[in-house]
Every structure is written in structure tokens, then in C-alpha cells.
Amino acid sequence: MPRILEEFTIAPKMIELFAEDMEMVVQLHEVYRRKKQKYRIVFVPDPICWTLVPETFSALSRQRRRWHRGLMQVLFGHLKMFLNPRYGGIGLFAMPYYFFFEMLGPIVELAGYILVPIALFLGLISLESFLLFVAAAFLFSAILSVGGVLLDERSYRPYESWREVSILILYALIENFSFRIVTTFFRVMGILDYLRRRGRW
């Protein structure tokens, strides 16, 4: 069995990571795949963990920017796994997904928030096209959010009543017009922080 925990603990680069949990999982995949050893990483939903929730916009901004810098650190730190069949589904599917959708996705999303209204204002697109775009974007995001809530409820039953589930679904819908837009902006700022080698907790 690789001495992965010891390697992880003493690696100097770990001190500067902003997503050490993701780095550990990716590193486990990388080590075991490289050594061609059988392994299994499972998700256990039972433990209850507590964390500090950002109470101000500045704290939320620092958190989301830090998380996105951490994502980029992990992805660029393991580029050899990217589209590499040697690493199986992790290299062929998981790494490209995180690169194109999670890392670059906020740029495309924020560009849409800005460019589509500008195009409407300049008359480059019709009002019908604008409304169709907004409806499609909202519907797609809502399906993902509500689907996640229902899947969690079906699998683990974490809520005591359907009233709680209904409230959570309502928040999932409202999120698309408020919280999501704000955090998308913060994630783009995280990309700029990474490129300018800025970053702090």
C-alpha cells in the first residue's frame, strides 16, 4: 500500500493549497492508478460536520475565490492525468469535466449575464430570443438544483417533513436569480487571483 498519507502530510506544496481535500482524493487516484494497484474510494454520507458559514459578502467572496483557486491548483497540478487513459474514468471524464465545466464554466456564465442583455439593448437579438435564453438557462439550472434536492431526499432522507423539502426547493429556485450570480462573479475573480498569483485565506 503506498505511503500516501505520509507523502501527503510532508509534501511542502500542501502548505500552500486551498483545496487540500480535493488534492488528497486526486492524489490517491493518481498514486494507485500509477502503481496499478486495486483500490476503492467511497462516499460516506452519515458523518455530520460543522463549518463556519460566511456572514458577510466579503467573507463569502474570499471563500469562493479561495475554493476556485484551489480547484485550479489541483487541476494544473495533475495535468498529466488529463485525458490520459492510464487513469481510467478519472483521467478521461472527471478531470476534463472539472476543467471545462467547473473551472471555465463561470467565465461563460458571467459572459452570458453581461453580453446577452447588451445584445438585447443594441437590438442584436429580439426580446423573444432574450426571454427564451433566460427561460432555458433558468430551467436547466433549476432541474439540476431541484433534482439534487430530490435525489438527496430519496437516498438519505435527511429532512423530517416534505415542508422542509419544499422550502429547500424554493430556495433552489430563488438561488438562480441571486446567490448563483454573485458566486459566479466571485469564482471569476478567483480565476484572476490565480493568474495574478494572488491569494489568501
Automatic annotation (TrEMBL):
Pfam families: Chitin_synth_2. The keyword Membrane applies. Keywords: Glycosyltransferase, Membrane, Transferase, Transmembrane, Transmembrane helix. One of its GO terms (molecular function) is glycosyltransferase activity. This is Glycosyltransferase 2-like domain-containing protein. It comes from Candidatus Hakubella thermalkaliphila. It comes from the Bacteria. PANTHER family: POLY-BETA-1,6-N-ACETYL-D-GLUCOSAMINE SYNTHASE. Belongs to the glycosyltransferase 2 family. The chain crosses the membrane at residues 103-123, 130-151, 171-195.
